[in-house]
Amino acid sequence: MQQWLQAYLCIVQYRKVNRMQEKLKIILKNTRDLLEKAAGIDETEMIRVKVLGKKGELTDILKSMGKLPPEERKELGRAANDVRKEIENLLEEKFAKVKEAAKEGRFRLEKIDVTEPGHEFVLGVKHPLTIVTEEISGIFMSMGYSYAEGPQADTVFNAFDALNSPKDHPSRDMTDTFYISDDVVLRPHTSTVQIRTLIKQEPPIKIISPGRCFRCDTFDATHSPMFQQIEGLLVDEGINMADLKGTLDSMAKKLFGSATKTKFRPHYFPFTEPSAEMDVSCFKCGGKGCNICKGSGWIEILGCGMVHPNVLAVGGLDTEKYTGFAFGMGVERIAMLKYGVDDIRLFYENDMRFINQFK
Amino acid sequence: MLVPIEWLKDYTEVNVTTEEFCEKMIMSGSNVESVKLFGEGIENVVVGKVIKKEKHPDADKLSVCMVYVGEDEPLQIVCGAANVAEGINVAVARDNSRIPGPLHGQTQNEGATRIKKGKIRGVLSFGMICSAQELGFDDKVIPVAHKDGIWILPEGLSPGADIKEAMELVSAAVDFEITPNRSDCLSMIGMARESAATLASKLHYPEIKISAASDKEAKDYIDISINDPALCKRYAAKIVTDIRIQQSPWWLQKRLMYAGMRPINNIVDITNFVMLEYGQPIHAFDIRQIEGKRIVVETASKGEKFVTLDGNERALDETMLMIKDGMKNVAVAGVMGGLDSEIKDDTKTILVESANFDPESIRRTSKKLGLRTEASSRFEKKVDPALCMICAERVCSLIEMLGAGTVVRGEVDVYPAPESPKKIDVRPARINHVLGVEIAAEEMAEMFEALEMKVEREGEILRVMPPSVRRDLDSEVDFTEEAARMYGYDRLPVTIPRGNSEAALSREENLRKLTRDTLCALGANEIQTYSFVSPKSIDHIGIEEDSRERNFVHLKNPLGEENSVMRTILTPGMLEVMGRNWSRKAEALKCFEIGSTFGKDLIHEETLPQEQDALCIGLYGEGYDFFTLKGMVTEMLNVLKIKDPGFEAENGYRVYHPGRCARISYKGEELGIMGEIHPDVAELMGIGQRCHVAEFMFDKVMKNASTEVYYSPLPKYPAVARDIALLIKEDIPAGSVEKVIREAGGSILESVKLFDVYRGKQVDNGMKSAAFALTYRHPEKTLTDEEVTKIHEKVLAALKEKFDAVLRDV
Predict the structure, then answer these.
(1) B477, B502, B629, best to mutate vs chain A, most A CBs in 10 Å
(2) pTM for the whole structure
(3) Who among A144, A184, A351 is closest to B500 (CB)?
């Protein structure tokens, strides 16, 4: 009886094991079938829950295995684990597939017309005269020139007397220079800053000074009673005219391009001796002659010279020991040439369609 | 200074092409403004003689002329000029010819005009009789006799000859820019001196020969006294009798015309010729008009009147130097002669005046009279007194040469203080030092000698005596330039100055640049407007009397009312730019300007005006409102490290909408003002939209600004956020609420931010709901809920107490 019972139980057990193995096969098959048909992430997840969830079919089997004797448990356990692994693989594969499909669907849905315009982010633009001034100042600052400032309304002394301008020089006339009182003018050039600096500072003096100037010119395409200049001054021991040429030639190459050539012509200014005007090779035609350079191949861009000893003396300098050079250029003129602007008045009209072009 | 090359060749050799000549002259210091070519564009134009003139059958003003051009058959030509006559020589543009000038009656010159035969009012015309203008002469140089008609050519030309050859038309004139220091170059000889030095040629002076056939002496005719020797250095006069006024010969006319002057008659032409030749203005008086045989040079009396040669009556004053005879004024010295002393067709005896007047006096007089002449513009610069006698004699020799008069022996020459020649010591070593070259002393001496200077060599020194016409050479430094230009600026070496130096922007310019960069990044364009404005610009924007904006600095000599004062603020300029852009259909605009403003120094009247920087920002356009501008302003100040500026409502500044304007301050100091522009102002300025402007006293902004950055450690402990929505009365400013929250919140309240204001359905009239986001954080520990709640309750209690604020469910 004992033996029989034992054998019977063994058979039952065996059947039970067999049934459970069957069941495992069925679960695997069903899951495979279901997954094959399943369409989205949600459906796939439902299948996962159905099989592997807390109350899932496979979970149940795994749970019930605890009651089995160790040998069978071992055997069945291996089988169940194999099935679980396979199902997990299937699920992983399926999830990958449906996620990919879902993404593709989303991409289709989210497609945009990339040719539609972008949102507006508008950077403001500096005034063209500021752009040119900053560029030129920057060039000189890279050569070690510091920035100096002076008032726009200045004394007749700083504007004329100290600059060696003869008492009867026509530029002093009320037809040429704006007067505020007998002793105060709107400066007709930035050279006033030369005097202010020479009086205030000991050599070496190396400054650049941009600013507004005023002359009694009536408005037309090339004249404006208000305009802007950039003044430069270098005073030290042993400064000579070759240095002046080298400095301004280097500036011109940086401003207009390295192929630019310069030409220095004799000229006259009361505050420099010798004085010169500098031409640059026409940056439009390169010197062949065109409408910009009026056929000459050269464009005048600044006045310069060796500081007159009488001017250095105003600053109390020993004129035997110190020499220097000075230069001044018109910002509007350079901007007009550089950008091809044909009417100086445009700079002060501030039409946004004009300003916006200098971005 | 227009210099005909042919004329120059009278004194020196010019053996290069015009182009090369110009290039060399430019490099030696005589800048060329333009080159005028004569005789260009003339083709197939010949000399013709009018042998018959008949009235056109169908037109009153036209004549039908038969013109002999050296061929068997004369040409039939229809001519409309009134001065065409039988027997005269004319320029004939034949069938298929070209002329350079515009056709008579037309102003536009589209290059060369082609002439073809054709019918004029039914009569065949085989060409055209030309005016001087049609052959390329400027209207202002054509003699009056043929100014409005055809050009009547001199006699003795052979018909059929090419006009260019017969009249020797083909030539060039170079227009030189003469700088104010080089009065010597306002003459052909002066330019010849430069040319000779430049081209290494010789300079020849004209030969002056007078046979003086008269048996009288000049002093029998005239007595001269200079009563104001400071204003008249020298007065020389010659007398010429038996004057025969005629047209000048073609060579003389051509010289003047090519140099830009209109020939008048032989005597006037000679005086002009000598003026152009030497640079010495000459005046010829009809001796009949000089009473008492006396010339007195002295200033006028105040209130005197005088009619000048041009027929205008001039008011004189005591500063004006006059030429008088025994009784009356006869000329404004060095400027213009009187109407009565003009050379007339029946003038028989003339006094040739060759004088030297004070430049400053001439300039003042010419300015006061509004009268600038060839003479005055030369005297204004310095003329060499040594020229007086030479030129008087040169005039006489030319009169004699043309057979236009008989020169009286001797002269009257009053020269109270003759000049002695200048001698200047020059150190070649110093010149080389300044130029950065090593020119040998001997070479330098030769350069000076080429410019007609005398040079004595004394060891290391050159003692230089410039010719007396060179009024510009006084000290060594002047010779540095002479040496440089003769050596050639282009031959000077090119070096970079030795020595190093630190470059720095000024603090102000650095801050201006940062502000410009910031505002550009915020989308604003920079503008620049004029520093001088109309005083009305302030009226337009409603600024009150006696305000600082009306403390104008006035120009003594403005171009006009519209730019007669210096701007005190930038807002008017900004509004003008906004109006201009609005009228040009700019839908939206955001811009700014940084610039000087000016104010009278009311304490020290005689010192310089006060100049202060201002900043103005302006905008209009859809979606832009007060808070757009406030946002820009706040961020800009933020970049300048001006944190938490104050904004206080202002309703009394009439530029702005009284309910939409704020004074901006920092640490109790006012920095500026901003707001929506008053609708009346906007309308007046032509801006058809709400527009907003902020104006700062930028000097004050810069004073408070900083560019320094300090790092503060990142917070280590978490923040606790609490949002509250408060129901408060409409007129309680959000700024005040925020201030109370901050005070009550104390140090652990890290930030407060108003994020929503609601008025409407769920909120009673006169009330608003303001939602604030509060962030609490302790720098050294994690705050507990209780700790936060304790402070938060305190905040709410304070709000309740101060504003009766009720917490509203969010």
Answers:
(1) B477
(2) 0.84
(3) A144
